[in-house]
Amino acid sequence: METGKSPRHDPGVDLRALGNTPQDFARDLLSNLYYERGTTVESASAQDMYDSLARTVRDRLAERRARTAAAHYQANPRWLYYLSAEYMLGRQLEQNLLYTGTTDLAREAVPDFDTTAAQDVEPGLGNGGLGRLAACLLDSLATMDLPAVGYGIRYDLGIFKQDLDAGGQVERPDDWAFQGNPWEFPAPDDNQVVGFYGKVTSVDGRREWEPAETVLGEPSHMLVPGYGTDTVNIVRLWRARAAQGSFDLTRFAHGQYAEAVADVVRSENISKVLYPDDSTDLGRELRLKQQYFLVSCSLRDIIRRFSFRNDGNWDEFAAKTTIQLNDTHPVLAIPELMRLLVDEYELDWDRAWRITHDTFGYTCHTLLPEALETWPVATIENLLPRHLEIIYEINARFLAEVSERFPGDVARIQRMSLVQEEPERRIRMANLAVVGSRAVNGVAALHSQLLAETTLRDFAELWPGRFHNVTNGVTPRRFVKIANPALSDLISSALGSDAWLRDLSLLQGLEPFAADDAFRARWREIKRANKLTLGVAPDFLTDVIVKRFHEYKRQLLKLLHTITLYQRIRAGETPAPRTVVFAGKAAPGYWAVKDVIRLINAVAATVNNDPAVAPYLKVFFPANYNVTLGQRIYPAADLSEQISLAGKEASGTGNMKLALNGAVTIGTLDGANVEIRDRVGADNFFLFGLDAAEAATLRSSDYRPRDYYERDDELRAAVDAIGDGTFAGGDRQAFGGVLASLLDRDEYLTLADFRSYLDAQAEVEKVWLDAEAWTAKSILNTARSGYFSSDRTIADYTRTIWGLDPVRVNP
Ligand code: C3B
């Protein structure tokens, strides 16, 4: 199984002969068209041209990749392995053109560049923030020359495509690689065999797991280039396949066509589809299989890579390897590494545990208890019997440690146990993650603080030194340079260079320009042009709430405000014109927020068809929010809505993308909003609402949403309009569920925060009417948001958790 292949680079021929003159580029493009697609310029389809262009660009990265692999082999460095069930990579073509400096060459060489580029499909292998964060971190790791590999699953179907039918969300499959994926390199020789089910027996005093079912994990990788450097890292994605020869010819001959491929289908189902759930625990055996599949393939690959230079030297493993667990989805890596070390490599338990514990770091991305994964003991016992034994052993040793520290504290032991007893026995994956990792981190300052005070309090008391904060960040390459080229050019000309793309703190240099009339005028012009590109009115305030739909994120609060604006206009008021942009997907089974989507579109239909309202208010809900659509929305936004109930949003990253593009935030003291406000200044941020402590107190008291409804005339009118058929052609039942949830429960205190939110919106409007004052705030938001670069996030991880050194790639 160990191929012992080493990625040494043979410098006998200079592959950089892939030159970058217009002739070189055009020749390579033509060569790909002829030899890869078997066609000619005259008869090439848009897809032929796209594929050939993609290969031409990719080949320039492949050469850098070979030099990176050689440098890494030479350095034998400490590696970071990032394990994540999700990656939202975004479109690859524009990024890779930028990173290879071939954008102009491509525009020159390709007859119809825009049509060609439009063929590029975004691999949507994630749900939302967590998956996009993973992609931003990979971008920064490569940019900072850090030796890292991302591991994930190559889902056949990514996050569903959202259609809107009569205003409601309809999900369509995202067959993203249907036309092939030119960015990907298959590596079938590096496949791994993964076991499931079966039984455990004792052989010579050792435990031996005999799986009843095996599946092949076949990897392919996509290139992850750094910006402004020759480093090209990889993200390695596993695809499940049946073993060769699984097709049942006998059954086929008897006309049993479905049965003939049953084994193949069963195996391949493991990487068939991304679970489209965000922030809820979802107990399905296939999902657990996916998680184990990812972990098992990746760990064996990590050991294979370790063995190139350090074969058998297990005492070096944790010094050469750090593995970051992106939330609880890959946490089975902890018992799996124990199983490999103890059962397969025959290390004793204590030594294996030291290695395991020293190897892992765990990032938690939530505070919601319902998002902390737990798995029924019975499910694990059936699917992974040996892992359950190992988890029990870890638990027994761990609980002995807790008892020693807190003798007689039975309640504490029950809370901390890896096994939940009631109402059903389940394994608590977050507890397992904390016990098996040397470092645990939250993703924003407030989040890390609340984790230690609430969700993971017992663990923080036991091991205070294990807990860290690493505030999230976003890549300025994709979310400023590529998304907003005109603004990027303005920034570069103001700062005198584009060095800010690799050191975003340099944006501070823009501060003086907030007082420069000509600069402000140019800043406004760009924002206007970006609105036209998005297709919204250029002179309206563009007010955006774009993110996954979730009750805690309170899209409904934004909608109540929108309804109030509508009612005020109907009553003769003439507010500052604004377009409210909603975008985002809802988990397919999450009916409470699917109703909200339907209601937003019903309100949009009413508002947008009312000529009396048209000069003041529009509601826009573009379907299928994804990275590509986000790249068009952020540059056009004036106002960034970050209005989750305080204490619920771990961090947010859309808030950072919007601030960097000059949107001013209206928000609660939640997640990274707190840090955004600290940096941009309280004067350049519209704050409202309960803080986390106040929200927790109100929620635990006898909260009565109806009191707020009865006391506030505008609130009552907005809520009544939902129930009286105003937006449903007179049908009073159409949104009964939304109404009841607001008035009877209002779990996320929407009504309690309504008035404070409207007051803050009045302040927004006042400032907006003074265009110069608004533009100054917009510029200061960009100038002071450099901290939110994912390069800074990676620097923090490197310093506090990973301890990595860069490896420079020789030109
Ligand atoms: C998200 C959180 O909801 C965001 O606050 C956070 O910014 C990102 O992760 C990145 O840290 N998240 C998610 O997208 N999916 C989950 N299952 C849990 C958290």
TrEMBL record:
Record-level GO cellular component terms: cytoplasm
Similarity remark: Belongs to the glycogen phosphorylase family.
Protein EC: 2.4.1.1
GO-annotated molecular function: glycogen phosphorylase activity; pyridoxal phosphate binding
Required co-factors: pyridoxal 5'-phosphate
BP terms from Gene Ontology: glycogen catabolic process
Record flagged with keyword Transferase: yes
Record-linked PANTHER family: GLYCOGEN PHOSPHORYLASE, GLYCOGEN PHOSPHORYLASE, LIVER FORM
UniProtKB keywords: Carbohydrate metabolism, Glycosyltransferase, Pyridoxal phosphate, Transferase
Class of enzymatic activity (EC top level): transferase
Protein name, as recorded: Alpha-1,4 glucan phosphorylase
Catalytic activity: [(1->4)-alpha-D-glucosyl](n) + phosphate = [(1->4)-alpha-D-glucosyl](n-1) + alpha-D-glucose 1-phosphate
Role this protein plays: Phosphorylase is an important allosteric enzyme in carbohydrate metabolism. Enzymes from different sources differ in their regulatory mechanisms and in their natural substrates. However, all known phosphorylases share catalytic and structural properties.
N6-(pyridoxal phosphate)lysine PTM sites in chain numbering: 657
Keyword Glycosyltransferase found: yes
